Amino acid sequence: MTEKRIRVLIAKPGLDGHDRGAKVVARALRDAGMEVIYTGLRQTPEMIAEAALQEDVDVVGLSILSGAHMALVPRVLDILKGQDQDQVRVFIGGIIPDEDVEKLHAMGVAAVFGPGTRTQDIVEAIENTVKAAGIRA
Amino acid sequence: MRLVESVLAGDRLALARLLSMIENQEEDGFKALAALYPRTGQAHIIGVTGAPGTGKSTLVNRLVKRLRSFTAAGEKDPSKVGVVAVDPSSPFSGGAILGDRIRMRDLAGDPGVFVRSMASRGALGGLANTTGGVVQALDAAGFDVILIETVGAGQAEVDIARTAHTTVVVTTPGMGDEVQAIKAGILEIADILVVNKADLPGAENAMRGLQVMLEMGRHTNSNLGEQNLDVEPAWRVPVLATVSTEGQGFDTLLDSIIQHRDYLHNSGEWDVRERERQRAALDALIHERLRKRFLESQPYGKFEEVLQKVVARELSPWQAVGELLKEEDAE
Protein backbone atom coordinates (compact mmCIF):
# COMPACT_ATOMS: atom_id res chain seq x y z
CA MET A 1 0.00 0.00 0.00
CA THR A 2 2.34 2.72 -1.14
CA GLU A 3 0.04 4.76 -3.32
CA LYS A 4 -0.84 8.32 -2.52
CA ARG A 5 -4.27 8.80 -1.03
CA ILE A 6 -6.43 11.90 -1.24
CA ARG A 7 -6.41 13.63 2.14
CA VAL A 8 -9.44 15.69 3.13
CA LEU A 9 -10.04 17.89 6.15
CA ILE A 10 -13.71 18.05 7.16
CA ALA A 11 -14.42 20.94 9.51
CA LYS A 12 -17.37 22.81 10.91
CA PRO A 13 -16.58 26.49 11.34
CA GLY A 14 -18.85 28.72 13.35
CA LEU A 15 -21.33 27.96 16.06
CA ASP A 16 -24.03 25.65 14.74
CA GLY A 17 -23.97 22.29 16.44
CA HIS A 18 -25.31 19.95 13.77
CA ASP A 19 -22.67 17.68 12.35
CA ARG A 20 -24.68 14.77 11.00
CA GLY A 21 -24.13 15.97 7.44
CA ALA A 22 -20.40 16.37 7.96
CA LYS A 23 -20.19 12.85 9.38
CA VAL A 24 -22.17 11.34 6.51
CA VAL A 25 -19.83 13.00 4.02
CA ALA A 26 -16.73 11.94 5.98
CA ARG A 27 -17.95 8.36 5.94
CA ALA A 28 -18.68 8.45 2.20
CA LEU A 29 -15.22 9.81 1.46
CA ARG A 30 -13.64 7.12 3.61
CA ASP A 31 -15.57 4.48 1.70
CA ALA A 32 -14.23 6.01 -1.50
CA GLY A 33 -10.70 5.35 -0.23
CA MET A 34 -9.82 8.83 1.02
CA GLU A 35 -8.16 9.70 4.31
CA VAL A 36 -10.47 12.09 6.13
CA ILE A 37 -9.29 14.19 9.04
CA TYR A 38 -12.38 15.07 11.03
CA THR A 39 -11.94 18.01 13.39
CA GLY A 40 -15.35 18.34 14.95
CA LEU A 41 -17.52 21.28 15.86
CA ARG A 42 -16.91 24.98 16.43
CA GLN A 43 -13.65 25.45 14.64
CA THR A 44 -12.32 28.94 13.97
CA PRO A 45 -10.98 29.72 10.49
CA GLU A 46 -7.51 29.91 12.06
CA MET A 47 -7.84 26.41 13.53
CA ILE A 48 -9.03 25.03 10.20
CA ALA A 49 -6.16 26.52 8.23
CA GLU A 50 -3.63 25.33 10.79
CA ALA A 51 -5.02 21.79 10.75
CA ALA A 52 -4.99 21.82 6.92
CA LEU A 53 -1.33 22.82 7.00
CA GLN A 54 -0.18 20.28 9.56
CA GLU A 55 -2.13 17.50 7.88
CA ASP A 56 -1.03 18.53 4.37
CA VAL A 57 -4.48 17.94 2.92
CA ASP A 58 -5.50 18.24 -0.73
CA VAL A 59 -9.03 19.34 0.09
CA VAL A 60 -10.84 21.21 2.87
CA GLY A 61 -14.56 20.55 3.21
CA LEU A 62 -16.48 23.10 5.28
CA SER A 63 -19.91 22.27 6.63
CA ILE A 64 -21.89 25.42 7.39
CA LEU A 65 -25.54 25.49 8.37
CA SER A 66 -25.57 28.70 10.35
CA GLY A 67 -25.84 31.19 7.50
CA ALA A 68 -22.49 32.72 8.40
CA HIS A 69 -20.79 31.40 5.27
CA MET A 70 -20.15 34.83 3.75
CA ALA A 71 -18.16 35.74 6.84
CA LEU A 72 -16.41 32.43 7.49
CA VAL A 73 -15.45 31.22 4.01
CA PRO A 74 -13.50 34.30 2.85
CA ARG A 75 -11.60 34.22 6.12
CA VAL A 76 -10.59 30.57 5.66
CA LEU A 77 -9.56 31.25 2.05
CA ASP A 78 -7.50 34.28 3.06
CA ILE A 79 -5.61 32.46 5.78
CA LEU A 80 -4.91 29.47 3.53
CA LYS A 81 -3.55 31.85 0.92
CA GLY A 82 -1.45 33.70 3.46
CA GLN A 83 0.15 30.40 4.45
CA ASP A 84 1.04 29.48 0.85
CA GLN A 85 -1.63 26.83 0.89
CA ASP A 86 -3.14 28.06 -2.39
CA GLN A 87 -3.17 24.55 -3.81
CA VAL A 88 -5.71 23.36 -1.22
CA ARG A 89 -9.18 23.15 -2.80
CA VAL A 90 -12.11 24.25 -0.66
CA PHE A 91 -15.58 22.67 -0.87
CA ILE A 92 -18.66 23.83 1.00
CA GLY A 93 -21.58 21.80 2.19
CA GLY A 94 -24.66 23.20 3.84
CA ILE A 95 -27.55 25.54 3.35
CA ILE A 96 -26.29 28.25 1.03
CA PRO A 97 -28.70 30.59 -0.87
CA ASP A 98 -28.28 30.50 -4.67
CA GLU A 99 -27.11 34.10 -4.89
CA ASP A 100 -24.25 33.34 -2.51
CA VAL A 101 -23.14 30.22 -4.38
CA GLU A 102 -21.87 32.31 -7.28
CA LYS A 103 -20.07 34.70 -4.97
CA LEU A 104 -18.37 31.78 -3.25
CA HIS A 105 -17.28 30.37 -6.61
CA ALA A 106 -15.85 33.76 -7.51
CA MET A 107 -13.82 33.74 -4.31
CA GLY A 108 -12.25 30.46 -5.35
CA VAL A 109 -14.45 27.82 -3.74
CA ALA A 110 -14.31 24.65 -5.87
CA ALA A 111 -17.93 23.59 -5.34
CA VAL A 112 -20.95 24.09 -3.10
CA PHE A 113 -23.19 21.16 -2.15
CA GLY A 114 -26.69 21.77 -0.83
CA PRO A 115 -29.16 19.50 0.95
CA GLY A 116 -30.05 16.38 -1.04
CA THR A 117 -26.71 16.11 -2.83
CA ARG A 118 -25.76 12.49 -3.49
CA THR A 119 -22.57 11.58 -1.67
CA GLN A 120 -21.33 9.94 -4.87
CA ASP A 121 -21.42 13.37 -6.55
CA ILE A 122 -19.26 14.81 -3.77
CA VAL A 123 -16.78 11.95 -4.11
CA GLU A 124 -16.55 12.46 -7.87
CA ALA A 125 -16.20 16.22 -7.59
CA ILE A 126 -13.31 15.84 -5.16
CA GLU A 127 -11.61 13.14 -7.21
CA ASN A 128 -11.89 15.21 -10.38
CA THR A 129 -10.65 18.38 -8.73
CA VAL A 130 -7.63 16.70 -7.19
CA LYS A 131 -6.88 14.95 -10.48
CA ALA A 132 -7.14 18.23 -12.38
CA ALA A 133 -4.76 19.90 -9.95
CA GLY A 134 -2.25 17.25 -10.95
CA ILE A 135 0.60 15.83 -8.99
CA ARG A 136 1.89 18.47 -6.69
CA ALA A 137 5.42 19.68 -7.05
CA MET B 1 18.13 19.92 -0.80
CA ARG B 2 15.78 22.87 -0.38
CA LEU B 3 13.17 20.84 1.47
CA VAL B 4 15.67 19.70 4.10
CA GLU B 5 16.89 23.25 4.68
CA SER B 6 13.34 24.52 5.04
CA VAL B 7 12.46 21.80 7.53
CA LEU B 8 15.55 22.56 9.58
CA ALA B 9 14.72 26.28 9.48
CA GLY B 10 11.36 25.52 11.10
CA ASP B 11 9.14 25.86 8.03
CA ARG B 12 5.97 24.03 9.08
CA LEU B 13 4.54 23.72 5.57
CA ALA B 14 7.78 22.10 4.39
CA LEU B 15 7.64 19.73 7.34
CA ALA B 16 4.03 18.81 6.55
CA ARG B 17 4.99 18.08 2.93
CA LEU B 18 7.94 15.97 4.00
CA LEU B 19 5.70 13.93 6.29
CA SER B 20 3.37 13.21 3.35
CA MET B 21 6.30 12.12 1.18
CA ILE B 22 7.42 9.73 3.90
CA GLU B 23 3.89 8.40 4.35
CA ASN B 24 3.56 7.83 0.62
CA GLN B 25 6.99 6.19 0.56
CA GLU B 26 8.28 8.53 -2.11
CA GLU B 27 11.93 8.29 -3.08
CA ASP B 28 12.49 12.02 -2.43
CA GLY B 29 11.08 11.63 1.06
CA PHE B 30 13.60 8.92 1.89
CA LYS B 31 16.41 11.04 0.44
CA ALA B 32 15.38 13.94 2.67
CA LEU B 33 15.21 11.62 5.66
CA ALA B 34 18.70 10.39 4.89
CA ALA B 35 19.97 13.96 4.93
CA LEU B 36 18.12 14.65 8.19
CA TYR B 37 19.08 11.40 9.87
CA PRO B 38 22.27 12.66 11.60
CA ARG B 39 20.09 15.24 13.36
CA THR B 40 17.77 12.65 14.89
CA GLY B 41 18.14 10.93 18.24
CA GLN B 42 17.46 14.03 20.33
CA ALA B 43 13.76 13.66 21.08
CA HIS B 44 12.12 11.78 23.92
CA ILE B 45 9.61 9.54 22.16
CA ILE B 46 6.56 8.70 24.25
CA GLY B 47 3.98 6.15 23.15
CA VAL B 48 0.39 6.31 24.35
CA THR B 49 -1.63 3.17 23.78
CA GLY B 50 -4.74 1.46 25.10
CA ALA B 51 -8.10 0.10 24.07
CA PRO B 52 -10.52 2.23 22.01
CA GLY B 53 -12.46 4.65 24.17
CA THR B 54 -10.05 4.73 27.09
CA GLY B 55 -9.39 8.41 26.40
CA LYS B 56 -6.02 8.35 24.71
CA SER B 57 -6.59 11.48 22.62
CA THR B 58 -7.94 13.50 25.53
CA LEU B 59 -5.01 12.36 27.65
CA VAL B 60 -2.54 13.36 24.93
CA ASN B 61 -4.26 16.73 24.64
CA ARG B 62 -3.86 17.34 28.38
CA LEU B 63 -0.34 16.02 28.50
CA VAL B 64 0.79 18.29 25.68
CA LYS B 65 -0.80 21.30 27.39
CA ARG B 66 0.99 20.36 30.58
CA LEU B 67 4.32 19.93 28.78
CA ARG B 68 3.91 23.31 27.12
CA SER B 69 3.26 25.10 30.41
CA PHE B 70 6.42 23.85 32.04
CA THR B 71 10.06 24.81 31.61
CA ALA B 72 12.56 22.26 32.86
CA ALA B 73 15.46 23.37 35.04
CA GLY B 74 18.31 24.64 32.87
CA GLU B 75 16.05 25.14 29.84
CA LYS B 76 15.00 28.44 28.37
CA ASP B 77 11.68 27.38 26.90
CA PRO B 78 9.11 24.65 27.33
CA SER B 79 9.64 21.54 25.19
CA LYS B 80 8.42 21.69 21.62
CA VAL B 81 5.99 18.84 21.20
CA GLY B 82 5.13 16.79 18.12
CA VAL B 83 2.09 14.53 18.14
CA VAL B 84 1.57 11.63 15.75
CA ALA B 85 -1.93 10.18 16.07
CA VAL B 86 -2.64 6.92 14.26
CA ASP B 87 -6.12 5.67 13.41
CA PRO B 88 -7.04 2.55 11.43
CA SER B 89 -7.51 2.40 7.67
CA SER B 90 -10.59 0.63 6.38
CA PRO B 91 -9.61 -2.88 5.29
CA PHE B 92 -12.16 -2.59 2.48
CA SER B 93 -11.72 0.80 0.87
CA GLY B 94 -8.28 1.71 2.22
CA GLY B 95 -9.78 5.02 3.32
CA ALA B 96 -9.81 6.25 6.90
CA ILE B 97 -11.48 8.68 9.25
CA LEU B 98 -8.82 10.26 11.43
CA GLY B 99 -10.64 11.75 14.41
CA ASP B 100 -7.99 12.28 17.06
CA ARG B 101 -7.84 16.03 16.43
CA ILE B 102 -11.40 16.38 17.76
CA ARG B 103 -10.00 15.95 21.27
CA MET B 104 -6.93 18.07 20.65
CA ARG B 105 -8.54 21.41 19.88
CA ASP B 106 -6.81 23.02 22.87
CA LEU B 107 -3.50 22.63 21.05
CA ALA B 108 -4.51 24.89 18.15
CA GLY B 109 -2.61 28.14 17.81
CA ASP B 110 0.50 27.01 19.67
CA PRO B 111 3.54 27.28 17.37
CA GLY B 112 5.45 24.89 19.65
CA VAL B 113 3.07 22.04 18.83
CA PHE B 114 2.64 20.08 15.61
CA VAL B 115 -0.11 17.47 15.31
CA ARG B 116 -0.19 14.97 12.48
CA SER B 117 -2.82 12.28 11.92
CA MET B 118 -1.82 9.07 10.18
CA ALA B 119 -3.86 6.19 8.81
CA SER B 120 -2.48 2.75 9.59
CA ARG B 121 -2.59 1.79 5.87
CA GLY B 122 -2.87 -1.92 6.40
CA ALA B 123 -0.33 -2.35 9.20
CA LEU B 124 -1.66 -4.35 12.14
CA GLY B 125 0.62 -3.52 15.06
CA GLY B 126 -1.13 -0.30 16.11
CA LEU B 127 1.05 2.01 14.00
CA ALA B 128 1.56 2.64 10.28
CA ASN B 129 4.66 1.24 8.57
CA THR B 130 5.96 4.76 8.09
CA THR B 131 5.27 6.07 11.60
CA GLY B 132 8.93 5.61 12.49
CA GLY B 133 9.98 7.78 9.55
CA VAL B 134 7.48 10.48 10.46
CA VAL B 135 8.82 10.50 14.03
CA GLN B 136 12.37 10.84 12.72
CA ALA B 137 11.40 13.85 10.65
CA LEU B 138 9.79 15.54 13.67
CA ASP B 139 12.86 14.70 15.74
CA ALA B 140 15.18 16.28 13.17
CA ALA B 141 12.87 19.29 12.91
CA GLY B 142 13.61 20.05 16.55
CA PHE B 143 10.66 18.69 18.49
CA ASP B 144 11.97 17.77 21.96
CA VAL B 145 9.12 15.47 22.87
CA ILE B 146 7.20 13.35 20.39
CA LEU B 147 3.97 11.70 21.49
CA ILE B 148 2.69 8.80 19.43
CA GLU B 149 -0.93 7.85 19.93
CA THR B 150 -1.59 4.35 18.59
CA VAL B 151 -4.66 2.88 17.02
CA GLY B 152 -7.07 1.81 19.76
CA ALA B 153 -5.28 -1.37 20.71
CA GLY B 154 -6.41 -4.38 22.65
CA GLN B 155 -3.86 -7.03 23.40
CA ALA B 156 -1.41 -7.75 20.63
CA GLU B 157 -0.73 -4.33 19.12
CA VAL B 158 2.64 -3.80 20.71
CA ASP B 159 4.71 -2.17 17.94
CA ILE B 160 4.70 1.03 19.96
CA ALA B 161 7.10 -0.48 22.50
CA ARG B 162 9.66 -0.87 19.73
CA THR B 163 9.17 2.69 18.55
CA ALA B 164 8.95 4.70 21.79
CA HIS B 165 11.37 5.23 24.65
CA THR B 166 8.58 5.44 27.20
CA THR B 167 5.30 3.58 26.74
CA VAL B 168 2.20 4.78 28.58
CA VAL B 169 -0.64 2.24 28.60
CA VAL B 170 -4.05 3.76 29.26
CA THR B 171 -6.92 1.78 30.71
CA THR B 172 -10.17 2.66 32.47
CA PRO B 173 -12.25 1.27 35.35
CA GLY B 174 -14.33 -1.72 34.35
CA MET B 175 -12.07 -2.98 31.57
CA GLY B 176 -12.08 -6.55 32.83
CA ASP B 177 -10.79 -8.69 35.64
CA GLU B 178 -7.30 -9.60 36.66
CA VAL B 179 -7.10 -12.40 34.14
CA GLN B 180 -7.33 -9.77 31.42
CA ALA B 181 -4.50 -8.02 33.17
CA ILE B 182 -2.19 -11.05 33.27
CA LYS B 183 -2.70 -12.02 29.64
CA ALA B 184 0.35 -11.40 27.52
CA GLY B 185 0.61 -8.27 25.50
CA ILE B 186 -0.21 -4.68 25.99
CA LEU B 187 0.18 -4.47 29.76
CA GLU B 188 3.62 -6.06 29.55
CA ILE B 189 4.94 -3.22 27.44
CA ALA B 190 3.88 -0.50 29.90
CA ASP B 191 6.53 1.70 31.48
CA ILE B 192 3.71 3.70 33.04
CA LEU B 193 0.16 2.46 33.59
CA VAL B 194 -2.64 4.99 33.71
CA VAL B 195 -6.19 4.39 34.89
CA ASN B 196 -7.98 7.20 33.09
CA LYS B 197 -11.55 8.29 33.83
CA ALA B 198 -10.65 7.64 37.46
CA ASP B 199 -13.75 9.52 38.59
CA LEU B 200 -15.83 6.53 37.44
CA PRO B 201 -16.85 3.83 39.93
CA GLY B 202 -14.37 0.98 40.21
CA ALA B 203 -11.24 3.06 39.72
CA GLU B 204 -9.62 1.91 42.93
CA ASN B 205 -10.35 -1.72 42.13
CA ALA B 206 -8.81 -1.31 38.70
CA MET B 207 -5.67 0.25 40.17
CA ARG B 208 -5.37 -2.45 42.81
CA GLY B 209 -5.82 -5.17 40.17
CA LEU B 210 -3.04 -3.68 38.09
CA GLN B 211 -0.75 -3.36 41.11
CA VAL B 212 -1.30 -7.03 41.95
CA MET B 213 -0.58 -8.00 38.36
CA LEU B 214 2.67 -6.02 38.42
CA GLU B 215 3.76 -7.63 41.69
CA MET B 216 3.11 -11.11 40.28
CA GLY B 217 5.07 -10.20 37.18
CA ARG B 218 8.02 -9.16 39.30
CA HIS B 219 8.12 -12.48 41.07
CA THR B 220 7.90 -14.63 37.97
CA ASN B 221 10.53 -12.57 36.23
CA SER B 222 12.80 -12.97 39.23
CA ASN B 223 12.36 -16.73 39.19
CA LEU B 224 13.28 -16.92 35.56
CA GLY B 225 16.18 -14.56 35.85
CA GLU B 226 17.71 -16.09 39.00
CA GLN B 227 17.52 -12.71 40.66
CA ASN B 228 17.10 -12.23 44.34
CA LEU B 229 13.47 -11.55 45.16
CA ASP B 230 14.52 -8.90 47.61
CA VAL B 231 16.29 -6.81 45.01
CA GLU B 232 14.20 -3.86 43.94
CA PRO B 233 13.61 -3.71 40.21
CA ALA B 234 15.42 -0.86 38.49
CA TRP B 235 12.16 0.65 37.27
CA ARG B 236 8.90 0.13 39.10
CA VAL B 237 5.98 0.63 36.75
CA PRO B 238 3.79 3.21 38.45
CA VAL B 239 0.00 2.87 38.35
CA LEU B 240 -1.48 6.37 38.12
CA ALA B 241 -5.01 7.74 38.17
CA THR B 242 -6.04 10.52 35.80
CA VAL B 243 -9.19 12.33 34.78
CA SER B 244 -8.17 13.76 31.42
CA THR B 245 -11.28 15.86 30.93
CA GLU B 246 -10.61 17.65 34.23
CA GLY B 247 -6.82 17.58 34.12
CA GLN B 248 -6.50 15.61 37.34
CA GLY B 249 -3.37 13.56 37.87
CA PHE B 250 -1.26 15.18 35.18
CA ASP B 251 1.42 16.59 37.48
CA THR B 252 2.10 13.05 38.63
CA LEU B 253 1.96 11.65 35.11
CA LEU B 254 4.43 14.24 33.86
CA ASP B 255 6.73 13.55 36.83
CA SER B 256 6.65 9.83 36.08
CA ILE B 257 7.46 10.41 32.42
CA ILE B 258 10.44 12.60 33.31
CA GLN B 259 11.58 10.09 35.94
CA HIS B 260 11.40 7.33 33.38
CA ARG B 261 13.47 9.32 30.91
CA ASP B 262 16.08 10.00 33.62
CA TYR B 263 16.04 6.35 34.60
CA LEU B 264 16.67 5.33 30.99
CA HIS B 265 19.64 7.68 30.79
CA ASN B 266 21.14 6.86 34.19
CA SER B 267 20.81 3.09 33.86
CA GLY B 268 22.14 2.82 30.34
CA GLU B 269 18.76 1.44 29.30
CA TRP B 270 18.32 4.36 26.87
CA ASP B 271 21.13 3.03 24.68
CA VAL B 272 19.78 -0.52 24.91
CA ARG B 273 16.33 0.63 23.83
CA GLU B 274 17.73 2.85 21.11
CA ARG B 275 19.55 -0.17 19.69
CA GLU B 276 16.40 -2.30 19.88
CA ARG B 277 14.41 0.47 18.24
CA GLN B 278 16.84 0.59 15.35
CA ARG B 279 16.94 -3.19 15.12
CA ALA B 280 13.14 -3.36 14.85
CA ALA B 281 13.08 -0.57 12.27
CA LEU B 282 15.76 -2.21 10.14
CA ASP B 283 14.07 -5.55 10.43
CA ALA B 284 10.77 -4.09 9.25
CA LEU B 285 12.43 -2.36 6.31
CA ILE B 286 14.24 -5.52 5.22
CA HIS B 287 11.01 -7.47 5.52
CA GLU B 288 9.16 -5.04 3.33
CA ARG B 289 11.93 -4.65 0.76
CA LEU B 290 12.41 -8.42 0.38
CA ARG B 291 8.71 -9.00 0.03
CA LYS B 292 8.47 -6.34 -2.65
CA ARG B 293 11.50 -7.70 -4.48
CA PHE B 294 10.08 -11.20 -4.33
CA LEU B 295 6.70 -10.19 -5.70
CA GLU B 296 8.32 -8.21 -8.51
CA SER B 297 10.50 -11.18 -9.40
CA GLN B 298 7.52 -13.44 -9.95
CA PRO B 299 6.43 -14.15 -13.50
CA TYR B 300 3.11 -12.48 -14.26
CA GLY B 301 0.18 -14.51 -12.95
CA LYS B 302 2.34 -17.03 -11.09
CA PHE B 303 1.08 -15.96 -7.68
CA GLU B 304 -2.57 -16.24 -8.75
CA GLU B 305 -1.87 -19.62 -10.33
CA VAL B 306 -0.40 -21.02 -7.13
CA LEU B 307 -3.16 -19.39 -5.09
CA GLN B 308 -5.72 -21.20 -7.24
CA LYS B 309 -4.04 -24.52 -6.43
CA VAL B 310 -4.22 -23.71 -2.73
CA VAL B 311 -7.91 -22.84 -3.00
CA ALA B 312 -8.51 -26.12 -4.88
CA ARG B 313 -6.69 -27.96 -2.08
CA GLU B 314 -4.07 -29.27 -4.53
CA LEU B 315 -1.26 -27.58 -2.60
CA SER B 316 -0.99 -26.70 1.06
CA PRO B 317 -0.03 -23.07 1.76
CA TRP B 318 3.41 -24.28 2.88
CA GLN B 319 3.97 -26.21 -0.34
CA ALA B 320 2.76 -23.19 -2.28
CA VAL B 321 5.31 -20.92 -0.66
CA GLY B 322 7.98 -23.52 -1.40
CA GLU B 323 7.00 -23.52 -5.04
CA LEU B 324 6.98 -19.72 -5.30
CA LEU B 325 10.33 -19.31 -3.58
CA LYS B 326 11.95 -22.08 -5.65
CA GLU B 327 11.37 -19.98 -8.74
CA GLU B 328 13.14 -17.08 -7.18
CA ASP B 329 16.12 -19.10 -5.99
CA ALA B 330 16.59 -20.53 -9.46
CA GLU B 331 17.02 -17.08 -10.99
Which labels suit this protein?
heterodimer, A: 137 residues, alpha/beta, Rossmann fold, five-stranded parallel sheet, B: 331 residues, 8 strands
CATH architecture verdict of chain A: 3-Layer(aba) Sandwich
The percent range for helix content of chain B is 40-55%
Total DSSP E strands of chain B: 8
Mean pLDDT of chain B equals: 87
The chain-level mean pLDDT of chain A equals: 91
Profile the largest sheet of chain A: 5 strands, parallel
Instruction: Specify the helix fraction band of chain A.
Output: 40-55%
Q: Using the CA coordinates, give the radius of gyration of chain B.
A: 22 Å
CATH class of the largest domain in chain B: Alpha Beta
Q: Whole-Å distance between the termini of chain B?
A: 38 Å
Write the topology of this structure.
The complex is a heterodimer of chains A (137) and B (331).
Chain A: E1 7-11, H1 20-31, E2 35-38, H2 45-55, E3 59-64, H3 69-82, E4 89-94, H4 98-107, E5 111-113, H5 119-133
Parallel strand pairs in A: 1-2, 1-3, 3-4, 4-5
Chain B: H1 2-8, H2 12-23, H3 27-36, E1 44-50, H4 56-68, E2 81-87, E3 96-98, E4 113-119, H5 131-140, E5 145-149, E6 166-171, H6 178-182, E7 192-195, H7 203-225, E8 239-241, H8 250-267, H9 269-297, H10 302-311, H11 317-330
Parallel strand pairs in B: 1-5, 1-6, 2-4, 2-5, 6-7, 7-8
